[in-house]
Amino acid sequence: MRPPKQRRDTRKLILDAALRLFNEIGEPDATTNHIAEALDISPGNLYYHFHSKQDIARALFDRFAARAGQLAAVPVTGHANVEDLWFLLHSLFEEISAYRFLFRDLHHLLRRDPALRRDFERLLERIERAIAALCRNLAGTGAMHATEREIDVLAEQLTFILTSWLGYRSLLGMPRSGGESQAPARGAHQALALAAQYFDPPGRKLLDNLAGGYLDRAWDAYNAAAL
Questions:
Q1: What is the pTM of this model?
Q2: Percent of the chain at pLDDT above 70?
Q3: Which residue, among 227, 225, 217, 212, has the nearest Cα to 177 in the 3D structure?
Q4: What is the dihedral sign for C-alpha 217, 223, 224, 226?
């Protein structure tokens, strides 16, 4: 019998390999045989840890949800500032990009797994509440000029962008690899441009500088990788 640590390591390796394949070729087109071949293990060894590809996808969602949930669970205390909104949005985009198959193949995954749909809805509700709470803090300090209703609408719009950005870019023909390295920066830039209307000129300028610098660094990393 394998020692417990080795079993855990194999499980992690399977999830890591599946994540790479799902992101590269899509969850519907990646099979458990592809994952086993990528790790040079037998299909039986893989099925010892996961009974189906659906179980693997579910485990990857759980891992993503834990990371995104941590970001959404950070309490808003004291006086929030523009950088806090920027940090929350671009950090969420980074996590979404790392698990981008969940969003590119979302309809396929949810149609197959009703329980996943419920958990996905709960996660998005947590994210939307976290964005709204941060915006209310910003409005309370005078850094942001928005009514309660405007904040609720903005939080929903930003959550929509978070959820839909990768699918939208994929629809426009963005490659599954390479170009996607810029996706978090471009998505965060779009989200912050939407939020900027509620800030004074200095706040808008700071948001633009933060988003622009991040986008420039993403382009530099992409160009360096292409050399």
A1: 0.84
A2: 83
A3: 225
A4: positive
